Amino acid sequence: MKRIKIDRRDFIKSSAFIASSAGTGLMVAANPELEAAPAQGGAVKRGSALAQCPYCGVGCGTIIQTENGKIVSMRPDKDHPTNYGLQCIKGLTAAEPMYVDRMDGDPYVRKDVWEEWSKPGHGDMEFISQTKGSFDEEHFVRVPYHDASDMVARKVVYFAKKYSGNSISLYGSGQLTMEGQYLENLFMKGVLGSNTIEANARMCMTSAVTGYFATLGSDTPPLSYDDIEMADLVMHFGHNARESHPIIFWRIADHKKKNDIPTVVVDPRLTGTVKGYSDINPDNNVHVPILNGDISFLNSIAHVLLKDHKDVIDWDFLKAHVTGWKEYVDGVQADYSPEQVQDRMGGENHEVPASLIRRVAGMFADATRKRLVRSKGKHEGKGYGGVIIMWGIGYNQHIHGQHNVISIINLLTLTGNLAKPGCGPFSMTGQPNAMGERFTGGLTGRLPFNEGLNNLKHRAHMAKMWRIPEKNLDTAANSKNPGFAVGMMERALKGDLKAMFLVYATHIDLPDQYNLVRPALLKTFNVVQEIYRHAPNNLYADVIFPACTWGEVNGVYISSERRINICEKAAQGPKGCRPDMDMVIDKGKEIADLLGMDGDAIFPYKKDKDGEYDAEEVFRDVCRASAGTDADLTGILEREKIDGISPYEQLKEIRGIQWPAPTYEVAKNGGTKRRYMMQEGQWENRPYGYFRTKDGKVHMKLCKQDYSEREEITKKLMEFGVKENHYTIDNQDLIIKARDMGLTPDLPDEKFRHKAWNEVPKDKYPYWMGLGVVYEHFHTAKSNRSPTTQRLVPEMYVEMHELDAKDLGIKDGEWVRVVTRRGSLEARAQVGGTDSLVKPARNSVPRGYMFGPWNLSVADSADPKKNKWLANGISSRVWDPVSGQVDFKKLACRIEKLT
Amino acid sequence: MTFKSSNSSSRIMSRPYIFRHLNKVRWVCLTLVFLMLVLIPLLGIYQHYVSASAYRNLDGSEKLLFDSMHALSSPFTMDPENDLDALKGTTWSGQLFGLKITDPLAIVGQMSAGLEVYWPFVLTGLIPILLTMFFGRFYCGWICPATFLYELNSNFALWLKKIGVYTGDRKFDRRIKYLILLLGIIASTITGTIIFASLYPPAVIGREIYFSIALSGFGGGTLFFMATLLFDIFVSKRGFCRYLCPGGALYSLLGRFRPIRIQRVVETCNDCEKCNAVCEFALNPMRDDFGQECNNCTACIAVCPQDALTFVVSLKDLDNQGPGYCSREYRSNSDERVNEK
Amino acid sequence: MVKAAFKVRHITQRYLRPPGALKEKDFIGRCIRCNQCAEICPNNCIKFFGSENGADSMGTPYITPREKACILCMKCGDVCPTGAIKPIKRELEPIVQYVEMGKARVDEQLCLSYQGKSCGVCYRACPLADTAIKVGYMEQPTVLDACVGCGLCERSCIQIPQAIKVIPNHLLASQLKATHLKERRSGDNDVQIIKFK
Fold first, then answer.
1. What are the DSSP calls for B183-238, one per residue?
2. Cα separation of A29 and A531, whole Å?
3. Which of A580, A703, A775, C114 has CB 3.0 to 4.6 Å from C108, enough for a Cys bridge?
4. Which residue intervals of chain C are DSSP H helices?
5. What is the pLDDT of residues B221-280, one digit of tens each?
6. Which domain, by its residues, includes A667?
7. In this structure, is residue A306 part of a structural domain?
């Protein structure tokens, strides 16, 4: 007796809340790997290609596998020195979203724009589409590539001539190949003379960048991953490594298991990172739940070391190679004892008592002593070990982010734990090639190879290397883009920006979406290069060019340890999709010609048999241009000359080269493991001494933190995004003051806690809200189109402490609205840490603090009318005056129950 | 000829107007029970949706279910997720606000299958057992969902007969169902499972309704019940209840000595036979033959034009009182007797 | 003979009984097929057998963890009138002590974390994480003794076929029995032993 079963959808309150795919605007294929599988019978053409994983900044080596010309799966590369055959779940499933929701064929142009353009004389050149805010098919026409490209070029030239090159901007990406980024910078600064080029790296790592520049004179970490296994203490600041950089986390955990090294995790939440280390040894793992007082914390450790652990202070080093240390030492001794900093440790829910600070200082000192023992009591000389301080995006994303980084380097410099084997500062990058963006200087005011636009000598050098007139770079240098990425959007709102290129970067990673970014995008002529049809950028695009993605282009990525990794082209992109780099070259040539320059001379690259430009040629160009800088790669070209192995082949052969590689020997041995203090090896024309600063010394700077005027300053900060026509770029003094005092962009109304949700007045925001990431997702686009990762975390959630939820009257699993002054989002309440039935439940938040990932921002729908999960609708635009980063993690919110 | 008076050991209850209308009340009761069998699974599904906070994921028909159940339940509860646990189950076994009530046949079946007495379970059947001992086989007339459908089926059969389709009215031996009860007990004991659960119409109906609403599937049980409906139409009216139902057998046994029973008031009876015609269980009320099988359905009371049937408190039926005093037969007999004089 | 034939089970899939259920033989005798356990289950994971598990199992509740696992809300035990599912309090100690749905088992050949690809999804799905299952290097799972067999790990495993499976209690016990029996009685069709790697 069989039952006749009719299929029903079911709803569960357990391992994964499954959002119905009918409700989402994305199309998630059932299993694209199976669809790519060949039909029965017939030989299957299999292939493989080496690449760096397209997700986080660890830079694991993978092997892309293809069948019949389609990418089907990943296999970790056991010969790669970063991961040795290990991989995490995101990298493993990186093949799944390759062919879901892709655009192909001709570019899309807004119908009204194309109609205007088709008028005689091209009509109003400044016409911007009126149908923005929707990406429905009916608003677009399909235009052949060359026609669309021609229109874009002419409009850009028009704007450049009428308003200056600086009225055109480019928002680039840390996921584009380094060659593409190099050419973007060339195009914007060299051809257009614009200084308004930004990238999503600005939201991620520029605090580290500017921190390094300020102290060491040049960007990026001086260490390699191998130093992890030599460290005696590893500290994580604002870094949930287990979720964001799993492979590095497990390397450290492995080291901790084998050698029982102590670990310290500074993070307001009790994350899986803390738990993982505690599982190995809870006695030497310390969790420091600081909310915003990291500067004070670090200064306080220095204070304790100076008082109680004088033997670990490297006085000789300070005297010989450091400036500013006297002010630092005096400053921390006077104002930063553990008792004096208690007001900045976050309050009753963030217990960092003086005893804890002293304990951490003691651990720090002990680790330093271990190194001293190995090097026989001297800070210099042979030996290894000491303290590695790692930090992640959580640490960079503050309105005093640069000072945060400087404080870390201060402390390490004080104790001689600087860039020797097994010790030093280690910033972990978020994106696979944010390092490339920094390397090629694709940011406001920067030039490639760690120099600024204001360096006249370098300007002349780059103009020569770029084959562009030097006056263009002068123009760029004199053009202003205050506020960096946020400022770019504010200038657009003010009407100062006319056109924007968005390449491989989504606009939804910028803060204050509803008041700043989306209104700004309505005002500019937007040219978008995208891979997915329903990407949020397409909502505001006037022209969309279908692009090839990772795995379909040749190029290199640079990982967090300065390793340049090859990313081979594994398969041809869908028909009509072109590599981003190619489209930049095409437009660059056209625009250069229209502006009276010689496009072919600037971009002398040839196309290969697939009709695509040869990325390796560009790479050689980069190597040539890097001669004489501290990122010198000419060793690679020497090796090509001597051994006859092409650059890409070299990268494949030894699985990456860490820059700089100034000589043949260094290039052959895989690049430079450790920078500074003469550790680079034989380098004849090294352009610097001990350190990359002008005087060759480390520049310590005492960073202060002072909450005495917190309320009034923060009150003014909270007006941005709320008051009409109120711009941060017009209020830079305020921002500088906020940074100098180490503040947060919002301040919650704590008096209104302990109330039920409907008793909190509508103008009060009692709780902290932080945005971050979740292990199963990377950014917002690919992992939500991958069936595996989408199924694991399909819905937006907000972590809540169970007592807060009880006060509010919210139960685990209920839908709530998180409201800030600037906007709101909807999320499922995840109450009770690991006991919650809303998975993934692996972190515990302290009372008064809520946390949600930004990865699900458009996972419910990219259509603004239906999209309720847009995380950056609630964030604040206040930026660090030097680094330009904003604080996504200290927002003041109110919780409402959704009925 | 003396006027034969009623048995002095019985008390004639006054015949309030209400007894005539009890049949309507019974129909309301049957309808309500059937409605609850449909409503409880629907409320259960609504409860699932509430538990999962899933309203935003529902589509058209599911939203309709949610909204209608929400409208129904919201006057009574602010916390449907937990409060609706109070209404669960079917007539086979269910719970009402924490009180568990089970069909006594289930208890008998389970005791024979498991060969053990689990007292908490037996206690859940206490109320039905006591009520049956007091009111007789009332379950069959007032509660059983099968009765609801069978009585409708009987009316349907009448209509079929009117339009000329053949309907059956064979009579079998009422004692067959006791044999079936016994065989069922033995079979349960041998196999170690409750056979009754598959063959007892109210259990089958409750389950099939639940499955069709909550699990989207019909099963063999529906076919089985359809077969009994056809049996009732074409072979024997109310054949299953009269001759085959083991539950009916059990309740009849329990209700044999019920204090509340129907009795004929012979004084006003006119032998019109309407009561016999309407009796679904083929009893003989006109000749005081109610027996243990009578389920107090009051159909006969309702139909009697002379109000000659009523409820009494008595532990057994009267013996055959003979023709009703208002009947022709009686009058002609009495005339004869008078004439004899 | 008849009895044996009646009891033949054609186990085509592993199944679990609801949490707190009596041992298989007793359960079948006690369950009155009232369906209330599925009605009250907020997770909608309880289904009922037709004839596929033998005529004696017909109408009894079961759970297939790969399709829908049990979230250990323990409501079914409260509602079961016959005590076929024992009522158990929804707290850690009673659940760990009295719920015996089965035991999870990791297939290290299939598990991604044992192949150098950190996963850890089963650990995150477990409602008794760190009590019933723990993870080590690269999120490699190890099932602990306290595992009650709810099956949420199996449901969440991203491998196909799943790398972690719950071995139901009635197969666990008889597997133990089989290893201790020197010879098996012929004609005893009671339970088929299924070999797992």
1. HHHHHHHHHSS-SHHHH-HHHHHHHHHHIIIII----HHHHHHHHHHHHHHHT-TT
2. 16
3. C114
4. 2-6, 24-30, 36-40, 75-79, 92-98, 121-125, 152-156, 169-180
5. 899 999 999 999 999 989 999 999 999 999 999 999 999 999 998 888 888 999 998 998
6. 632-697
7. yes
Q: With the CA atoms of A664, A666, A670 and A672 taken in that order, what torsion angle do they form, in degrees rounded to the nearest 10? A: -150
Class of domain B259-340: alpha beta
Q: Neighbouring chains of B at 3+ CB pairs within 8 Å?
A: A, C
The amino acid that residue B57 corresponds to is N
Question: Looking at residue C194, what is its pLDDT?
Answer: 33
How many pairs of residues across A and B have Cβ atoms under 8 Å apart?
A: 43
Residue, of A168 and A776, whose pLDDT is higher = A168
* Chain C residues within 8 A of B214 when measuring between CB atoms: 38-39
Amino acid at site A526: N
Considering only the beta carbons, identify the residue of C40, C44, C58 that sits closest to B198. C58
What confidence score (pLDDT) does residue A9 get?
Answer: 29
Helix then strand count (H, E) for chain C reads: 8, 7
Each domain of chain B, given as residue ranges in start order, spans 259-340
Question: A658-683 b/e with 16+ CB inside 10 Å = b?
Answer: bbbbbbbebbbbbbbbbbbbeebeeb
Please tell me whether the peptide bond between A660 and the residue prior to it is cis, using omega within 30 degrees of 0. yes
Sign (positive/negative) of CA torsion A678, A680, A686, A691?
Answer: negative
If one counts the domains in chain A, the total is: 5
Instruction: Assess whether A212 and A192 both reside in one domain.
Output: no
Sign of the CA dihedral with A786 first, then A788, A794, and A797 last: negative
Q: Are residues A458 and A570 in the same domain?
A: yes
Is residue A459 a contact partner of residue A189, using CB atoms and an 8 Å limit?
A: no
**Alpha-carbon gap, residue A259 to A252, rounded angstroms:** 10
One domain, residues A357 and A235: yes
| ipTM score assigned to the predicted complex | 0.81
Of all residues in chain B, the percent with pLDDT exceeding 70 is 94
Q: Which CATH number covers residue A380?
A: 3.40.228.10
Residue A307 shares a structural domain with residue A184: no
- Same structural domain for residues A368 and A247? yes
pLDDT value at A22 more than 70: no
Query: Residue A815: closest CA among chain B residues belongs to which residue?
Result: B53
pTM of the model: 0.83
What pairing do the DSSP bridges indicate for beta strands A197-199 and A233-237? unpaired
Q: Is the pLDDT of residue A846 over 70?
A: yes
Q: Note the Cα B125 to chain centre separation in Å.
A: 17
The answer to whether the Cβ–Cβ distance between C50 and A3 falls below 8 Å is yes
The chains in contact with chain A, meaning 3 or more Cβ pairs closer than 8 Å, are B, C
pLDDT tens-digit series, residues B137-190:
999 999 999 999 999 999 999 899 999 988 888 888 989 999 999 999 999 998
Contact predicate B91/B138, CB 8 Å: no
Helices (H) and strands (E) in chain B, counts: 17, 5
In a domain, A1, yes or no: no
Q: Could you give the CA distance from residue C133 to residue A361 in angstroms, rounded to a whole number?
A: 35
The tokens describing B165, both together, are 């389709």
* pLDDT digits 0-9 by tens, B54-94: 787 788 888 999 999 999 998 988 888 888 888 899 999 99
Are A879 and A804 in a shared domain? yes
Q: With an 8 Å Cβ cutoff, are B52 and A13 in contact?
A: yes
Is A425 within 8 Å of A221 (Cβ atoms)? yes
Residues A417, A456: one domain? no
Pairing of strands A168-172, A263-266: unpaired
Considering the domain architecture, whether residues A463 and A575 belong to the same structural domain is answered as yes
Q: Which residues are paired to A603 by β-bridges?
A: none
Q: Would you call A2 exposed, middle or buried from its count of C-beta atoms within 10 A (0-12, 13-18, 19+)?
A: exposed
Give A859-889 pLDDT, tens digit per residue.
Answer: 988 888 889 999 999 999 999 999 999 999 9
| pLDDT digit string, tens, across residues A484-530 | 999 999 999 999 999 999 999 999 999 999 999 999 999 999 999 99
